[in-house]
Design goal:
With 172 residues, the protein is mainly α. Helix content is 44%, strand content 9%. The chain is built from seven helices and five strands, in the order αβββααααααββ. α5 crosses α6.
Length: 172
């Protein structure tokens, strides 16, 4: 949910099974930041993962009122628990960058941007109230436009034009 839907950790932990509509590819976030509710989309791959999780969860003695992500006894998970768990799982997976809950949200937004998704759609998916927040957010985590322009730039010196690709000799 953090990565595939771009949810904040508390939004994901507040979800109930009734909030997820796999057939429609939607998640209803009832307890967003500042109490705002919104509906977000999920891709078919994410829906498949959620369906698998729901099958596992169905084998536990918990009812539909328990959080979607809960202990085997139906108890809510604490955000602090997830925040401690993720770095440990990252180390066990051999990931040496910082692994944190909000990083999954950043990755979700950056990938949408790299796929050419309109910033207005990304803003709604993330639950930002103002599109300028999304623009600042994306420019901070994925300055792709700047990097793309600079990578395609041709350097000229006098009458000669030099195009240098990584790993080739050329002017510094």
């Amino acid at each position: 949910m953090l990565y595939r839907a771009g949810l904040r950790i508390n939004e994901a932990l507040e979800l109930r099974p009734k909030d997820v509509d796999l057939a429609a590819g939607t998640i209803r976030v009832l307890f967003g930041k500042r109490g705002y509710a919104r509906t977000v989309g999920i891709d078919p791959g994410a829906a498949a993962w959620i369906a698998d999780w729901l099958k596992v969860r169905a084998t536990w003695p918990v009812d539909g009122r328990a959080p979607l992500f809960c202990s085997k006894h139906g108890n809510a998970l604490a955000a602090a628990y997830i925040r401690r768990l993720l770095p440990r799982l990252g180390r066990e997976a051999g990931i040496y960058k910082r692994v944190h809950a909000h990083g999954f949200r950043h990755t979700h937004a950056a990938q949408l941007r790299s796929e050419g998704v309109d910033i207005g759609i990304i803003s709604k998916q993330l639950g930002h109230r103002c599109i300028t927040t999304t623009a600042r957010y994306l420019d901070h985590i994925a300055p792709t436009a700047v990097v793309d322009v600079m990578r395609k730039r041709m350097w000229t010196s006098g009458a000669e034009e030099v195009s240098r690709t990584p790993g080739t000799a050329g002017p510094a």
